[in-house]
Amino acid sequence: MHSVRIPDSVQFLRRALALLTMTLKADGGELPALEAVVLSRRPTYVELHLAQPRPPVAPFTADPDRPGVWRCEASSAALRPGEKLEPVVEPYPGLVSLGWDQEGRIVLIDLEYVGVLHLTGDAERGRYLYQALATELATTAFARRLPLAFVGRTATELTGVVLNSRALPADRAASDVRALAAVQRTRLQSLGIDSPRSARPHDQEPASWLGQVVLCHDTRAADLSDVPLLVDTRAAWPQSTMSVVALAPDGVPMPSGAWTLNCSAQDDLVLLPGSGMPVRLHQLDDVGFADVIELLTIGHSTEDVPGPYPANPPQ
Taking the alpha carbons of 161, 288, 11, 31 in that order, is the dihedral positive or negative? Predict the structure, then answer.
């Protein structure tokens, strides 16, 4: 959604991350794990909030007042504006925005790092956030054709208009992700690397590390009985690229380390796990979601419908 609303800022973020990946590839370094990404439009800059502090890598510099925060200004000479970048794999294909901070800056998280995102609290508010996340993941600017699997009825309309998205029963989704995780873990062990994020800048087949996201909301049809299978698969080690977004009551088992967002607050303000950053959550209601589906349907249509004949045609 934000690639349409603020294209310049999103392209700036993509360029900064691409240059970071190129630098790490040349130096043999690893991509840092991110607890959050903060994107400001005016002035335009991006902050990477690292899970563990480490020295910055170009085009980012350290924030002297906040260990573990890297910053890059849109005006930075390190961005080398005008220079064509070599093709690189998307370093963080699971980036998705949750909402805004109290300064009006966009806050994104990396689902691959989070692993399991548990949305709970008020059912309607949780569903509106779920629909917003599903829409953005289906149209993400941070990965080409990110595979999505929908468990349950919510937001499955996206499967009819977005490539690489499927609606699956919970047991089939659990079977698929276990198979994907097994293949990726075997490759990680053979490379001696503990996460796809570490492998991505250096592997000769970077596309094999593209993430998969399973979105689960099926409290009536399956009582979410297979969600524990999904989240347990993601919790195993070494990590796989698979991530789970589960809209589920508090009582559904989640692994330790899952990020829980309680959508009950009247102002939709929550504190992010880890960083404790306050975020005002996205809300995409049913009317807005229907509009999105209509726009995507029109955008993907191959039919050529002629316009109306002019009332006063030129002579």
Answer: negative
- Report the C-alpha gap between 272 and 97 in whole angstroms: 12
3-state helix, strand, coil in the chain (%, to 5): 35, 20, 45
The angle that helices 227-235 and 170-191 make with each other, rounded to 10 degrees, is 10
pTM for the full predicted model: 0.87
Q: Which amino acid is at 98?
A: L
Q: What is the 3-state secondary structure (H, E, C) of 147-203?
A: CEEEEECCCHHHHHCCCCEEECCHHHHHHHHHHHHHHHHHHHHHHCCCCHHHHCCCC
For residue 311, the 8-state DSSP code is: S
Per-residue pLDDT of the chain (315 residues), as tens digits, is 444 455 578 888 988 998 898 888 888 888 999 999 999 988 889 999 999 999 999 999 998 889 899 999 988 877 766 666 665 667 898 999 999 999 999 999 999 899 889 999 998 999 999 999 999 999 888 877 788 989 888 888 998 888 888 888 877 887 887 787 788 888 888 888 778 888 777 766 666 677 788 898 855 444 445 555 666 666 565 666 778 898 888 877 777 788 999 998 677 789 999 888 999 999 999 999 999 999 988 876 555 555 565 656 555
Q: How far apart are CA 167 and CA 181, in angstroms?
A: 19
Phi and psi at 213, nearest 5°, equal -120, 130
